[in-house]
Amino acid sequence: MNERVNEIIAPGRVAVITGAAKGLGAAVARRLAGEGMSLALLDSDATGLDEFAASLDVDHLKFVGDVSDRTTLERMRDEVYSRFGDVALLVNNAGITKRAGPWDDPARWQRQLDVNLFAVLTAQHLFVPRMIETKRPSAVVNLGSKEGITTPPGNAAYSVAKAGIKVLTEQLSHELLKATQGRVTAHLLVPGYTWTPMNFPGMNAMSDTKPEEPWTADQVVDLFMKRFRNGDFYIICPDNAVTPALDAKRIRWAAEDMIQNRPALSRWHPDWKDEFARWVAQP
Q1: Contact 116, 143 (CB under 8 A)
Q2: Domain that holds residue 250
Q3: Annotated catalytic sites, by residue?
Q4: pLDDT tens, 106-119?
Q5: What's the mean pLDDT in 167-175?
Q6: Do you know which SUPFAM superfamilies this protein is assigned to (predicted)?
Q7: Are residues 272 and 132 in the same domain?
Q8: Which residues contact 47 (CB under 8 A, 6 or more apart)?
Q9: Cys-Cys crosslink for 137: which of 7, 10, 113, 189, Cβ 3.0 to 4.6 Å?
């Protein structure tokens, strides 16, 4: 176990979580509350945030607003530091998905890029310098996606945003290592197929029957906590349909498109998809 994690996830320290009213954000918040952390929770759903926050028995602040609105993030930063004087963990979880293709109107792209990429960059800009100055162990966790790694066709705007999150978080990790010698770290959490409102709009986690293939949000958080405590940067989650071995093969094939000079997205290309199927089936 990475001992510095015990100074981050610890009673009395503070976690800032965006998209916190439901899904993965709420699951992370519940787990950290169970560890005795104080919480700052942001969501655009005022009713959902009120209902979720009422279930918590730890000190917390609530912020209702759009994560892509800089003034909302600035207000959150200022109130969190005024109240607690500390941020141990920044979890950039908020995200949206809406299909937009490579030649669609840029207006269809803008909202996804604003929420899924630029809001994360803004949060880092506002919180990370203070986390460095505080001189205590702390961490940033950004929510990526496998769609930002293997970039399957069909949702270009989301894939571009999440590919940007991967690169941004890698760069953040490296620069933090240089600036703090490992006292402040960054981590990329990549869920698999998960039983959350983003993937299942309108779902009711309390009454609806979960399909077999997705993991629950709590399963994702279980793996996150284990891997975070281990100090891992890449935290790539499987699910009940995709094993870690299959994830690794898909990632390797995508990376080798350039090395092998194959067509773009060859996994789905008519001249290569059968070859991919044969290769991935090999033990």
Answers
A1: no
A2: 243-283
A3: 158
A4: 999 999 999 999 99
A5: 98
A6: NAD(P)-binding Rossmann-fold domains
A7: no
A8: none
A9: 7
pLDDT at 206 > cutoff 80: no
CATH number at residue 211: 3.40.50.720
**Beta-carbon neighbour count of residue 170 at 10 Å?**
15
The phi, psi pair for 138, rounded to 5°, reads -160, 175
Name the strand (E) or helix (H) holding 246. Answer: helix 244-259
Mean pLDDT over all residues of the chain?
Answer: 96
Residues 90 and 64 in one domain: yes
CA distance 31 to 9: 10
CA distance 151 to 241: 18
Pair (251, 130) in one structural domain: no
Rounded Cα distance between 241 and 264, Å, is: 25
Report the C-alpha gap between 103 and 124 in whole angstroms.
30
Token pair for 264? 């773009």
Quote the longest CA-to-CA distance of the chain. Answer: 59
Cα–Cα distance measured from residue 224 to residue 280, given in angstroms and rounded to the nearest whole number:
26
Q: What are phi and psi of 180, to 5 degrees?
A: -125, 0
Other C-beta atoms within 10 Å of 17: how many?
25
Amino acid symbol at 16: V
Supply the pLDDT for residue 122. Answer: 98
Task: Report CA-CA distances (Å) from 175 to 87, 141, 182, 233, 266.
Answer: 19, 15, 10, 14, 33
